[in-house]
Amino acid sequence: MHANWILWGGLVGLFAAALVALAHTRWLQSQTLKKCVLLSVAFHAMLAIVAACVGGMRPASWGQLDDGRMTMTVVLAEEPADDLPVTAAAENPASDDESGDRDASEEQVAAADAAPPAPVSASPAETPVDPPADLVPLLAAAEEKPAKPEAAAEDRAPPAEGVTAQPRDVPAPYANRMGGRRAAAAAARGGSEETERAVQSALAWLARTQSPDGRWSAAAHGGGVERAVQGHHRSNAGAKSDHGVTGLALLAFLGAGNTHREGAHADTVARGLRFLVDRQRPDGSLAGDAEFFAALYCHGMATIALAEACGMTGDGSLRPAVDRAIRHTLSMQSPSTGGWRYAAGDRGDTSQLGWQVMALSSAGHAGVGGLDQAEARARVFLQSVSSGRAGGLAGYRPGERPSVAMTAEALVCRLFLGMPAEHPAALEAVDLIAQSPPDSSAPNAYTWYYATLASFHAGGPQWDRWNVRLQAALLPLQRRESGGLDGSWDPDPVWGGHGGRVYSTALAAMTLEVYYRHLPMHRQPAGAVAALP
Fold this sequence. Notes:
Layout: H1 2-23, H2 32-55, H3 88-91, H4 106-114, E1 168-171, H5 181-188, H6 193-208, H7 242-255, H8 266-278, H9 295-313, H10 319-332, H11 350-365, H12 372-384, E2 386-387, E3 393-394, H13 404-416, H14 424-434, H15 445-458, H16 461-474, H17 496-512, H18 514-517, E4 529-532
Antiparallel strand pairs: 1-4, 2-3
């Protein structure tokens, strides 16, 4: 036995020495992968031979060296462990005349094996541990599956003859989307007949391209094209972002006053909402099948759409889905930095923050509470990415240089979180945005969307100048032709490859709806509600 050990140990040592020698020569510098695989196979074959020779090809544990019958003794513990089921045998102590060795008979073992385990309840002395005070309060989970948006058909039906429709309360930010107020708001705040025609044409294209199950397909319209924006590769993210582009398409319809209960596109909106609600995950996520880099973006966009539809109509059947979605949003926020990124607890980035902050804002208009701590944490993150004399500029992540897109998105977040439009930080942000007005030769739907929102809500002369440049750059880019692309916008060369034509068209429509999508922050009365017939 000892001789075998010495022999095989020596062989293994020689083999290892040969490997070291080869590693110091030029032999491995060509076809490295193939040669490493060959060496690995040889080495493991050598180990297998050594193990077989030392331990035998058929170890004793297989039973070939056992003599006689194998036996097993089952010993019952004095007291059942806390984490094991209690059986009837354990509950009945042995009598005085039983043998002291406590060996279980075959009948007792069979009965114990066949008996179902009794449920183990917590000890009365145990009390639940209170969660830490800094945890984000979560909303109560709904126990019933929400009804489909179209279930209450009578809600969309016109009132019976002689019956006057009762006014309903609509959150003030959405009031100008409805009825004749939309045209008046557009005319008063810089819109025109041309912008309205562009919006309606975009909505018509979106309605034509909706899939039968209610979704908008990203991949079917050019989504998922990798363009390595800013040198970062995101593995063709966007090809499976159907939930995200569906949320954006719905927001374009909702922004022009179409809900699942009224409007020229009510059926389109109803099918889209049903698609999102029916495919919401148990944890509340609305990301669908989106890739890692796109998942939380998709969730945020879809959550805003559900929350706006719920807030605009007061439809209680949408509320459980909104509650679950917001719970997921809160669970993904970093408790230390206040930001969101790709996975739960990531330190965050400003691009992701914008969609989640707007989701919280829209949920608040739908009546969801318990969001104060999450909003306070979002303000902390905004402070961490701020720069400039007044703190109005913002970068993608803490310590990075400010950009127009991130400064605009951060300003929108600050305004939605309650910062006055007259704050010096807002003025500083608007000054940076003004230095990069829209140019049709370099379209960027993402930047134009957030910069338009920021300029509109901040108000002042900058808004008037920006609006003129926006219309001059954006309107000519819309497709005007007979055929399948009429009314759409081509994917822009920045992020358009990831989201595709649905993404670019929905964002462009939402940008041109800015005049009435929300009341401007610099004039909006806090908590006001408008009654509409």
